[in-house]
Amino acid sequence: MAVDAERIGEFSHYMHNPWLVILQVGLALVILYKNLGLSSLAAFVATIIVVSTNIPLGRFQKKFQEKLMMYKDKRMKTTFEILKNMRILKLHGWEMKFLSRIHDIRRDEERWLYKNNFTLAMITFAFWVAPTFVAISTFGTCILAGIQLDSGKVLSALATFKILQESAFNLPHTVSMIAQTKVSLDRIASFLHLQDLDSDLVEKNPRGSSDTAVDIINGNFSWDVTSANPTLIDINFRAVHGMRVAVCGTVGSGKSSLLSCILGEVPKLSGNVKLGGSRAYVGQTPWIQSGKIEENILFGKEMERERYDKVLEACALMEDLAVLSFGDQTVIGERGINLSGGQKQRIQIARALYHDADIYLFDDPFSALDAHTGSHIFKVS
């Protein structure tokens, strides 16, 4: 989106060129008609030919630009996923396999990049050829028609051709920018037309209205609403406040999807989802914002020192903070020190506990923790 938005912003420098080109060409032809008479029609025809060659070139460039951006997005997405899961790839020895996949996508991208650049080269070639082509056509017609050419007429015509050259210079860039901007506008429009997440997927009841924390009745959910195979089928689940519920299953069985259903992030095909009170979620991958440890735990909430200290103790963070020179004022994240996976996970759990929610959803929270620390957090929290 950032690249597309930047390209649309650049188009503002070219948006007035279409009508300016028409005005400049019109004035140039009037001047030529005053000097050369009907021979100026040759200049008009030559100009039309030059302009006409840019129309199909612009269409081709639009098509090539769309394909180029599609494969560029695909390559960037694949590269991001590979870097994100590099540890797993190295453990399984899959580096070369996925490297070859990136190379294959890059080759497809280069193929469309070559076509796009070739089309741009043709448009640029038309710019350099246009003045010479118009001049030869005009003066050749004058000679064939027997029109006398003196130095004044020739110099005036050459000066007028300079105006046409400027128009021909602006036109290829304008055509190219229009094609690229059209692609960017279509991509942004398709993004903006994506269906918003339905806020009514989950029925939220106020705290204390019922002893039921989570109640799913005949729920059918699917990440892709157009798919014939829903992600979760005929789910019936009920948990009351104070219960500790563990969801077990094989990899890919839908454990994380079930939590996402409770969060209201998976499109609901049918059924009802009711929640009693507020929610707090801890994902598999720790999320840490750039800032102080204290800011990561409070996350916008007001400081309550007693509850804050209890949360630190429950998440076994006291010893870690004691080692750090600035304690919980230490800056972490992209602009701060690096933490281990276990420390990040415990900070994430502390953030959820400090918010004093009615329902806590933990997605494999102890995967990055040792058995002793995980047992301590489970018992104390």
TrEMBL record:
Gene3D superfamilies: ABC transporter type 1, transmembrane domain, P-loop containing nucleotide triphosphate hydrolases. GO terms for molecular function: ABC-type transporter activity; ATP binding; ATP hydrolysis activity. Keywords: ATP-binding, Membrane, Nucleotide-binding, Transmembrane, Transmembrane helix, Transport. Pfam families: ABC_membrane, ABC_tran. InterPro entries: ABC1_TM_dom, ABC1_TM_sf, ABC_transporter-like_ATP-bd, ABC_transporter-like_CS, ABC_transporter_C-like, ABCC_6TM_D1, P-loop_NTPase. Residues 214-380 form the ABC transporter domain. This is ABC transmembrane type-1 domain-containing protein. It comes from Lactuca sativa.
